[in-house]
Amino acid sequence: MKQETKIYLTAEQLKNFGDSLSVIMNRLEMTNNNIEVLEVIQNSYEIKFDWLARKFLSTTYEQNRQINKLLNDVSFALLECDNEKELEGLKS
Q1: Residue 89 to residue 13: CA distance in whole angstroms
Q2: Sign of the torsion formed by the C-alpha atoms of 48, 51, 57 and 62
Q3: Could you give the CA distance from residue 34 to residue 52 in angstroms, rounded to a whole number?
Q4: Nearest alpha carbon to residue 49 among 35, 60, 61, 63
Q5: Mean pLDDT confidence for 6-16
Q6: Under 8 Å CB-to-CB from 48, ≥6 apart: which residues?
Q7: pLDDT band at residue 1 using 50, 70 and 90 as cut-offs
Q8: pLDDT grade, residue 91 (50/70/90)?
């Protein structure tokens, strides 16, 4: 018989991870929508395209940093879900 492994994440923590992943999915969808808009106007409005592209790139860079942090936090907690000592910092 296989021994059960105890999971040290609470239901609230798991729900918070789900919320974080939903936020990431929404941000990625918004980024994809912006890319489509830039592709449409690229040949039609060159000056506006340059301005929008610069703004998009700076905003996207910051969003990707935030997404990376969220994914890192969620993946760490899920990978260490059976290690109570490693998860102590998440409970606060």
Answers
A1: 12
A2: negative
A3: 9
A4: 35
A5: 93
A6: 41
A7: low
A8: low
Contact 88, 14 (CB under 8 A): no
Rounded Cα distance, 85 and 91, in Å? 11
The tens digit of pLDDT for each residue in 49-77 reads 888 888 899 999 999 999 999 999 999 99
The one-letter amino acid code at 77 reads A
User: How would residue 89 be classed by pLDDT, with cut points 50, 70 and 90?
Assistant: confident
Q: Is the model's pTM score more than 0.90?
A: no
The amino acid present at 45, given as its one-letter code, is: Y
What distance in Å separates the CA atoms of residue 10 and residue 7, rounded to the nearest whole number? 8
Of 14, 35, 24, nearest to 63 (Cα)? 24
33 is written with which tokens? 């929508």
* Cα 32 from Cα 55, distance rounded (Å): 15
Say if CB 74 and CB 21 are below 8 A apart.
Answer: yes
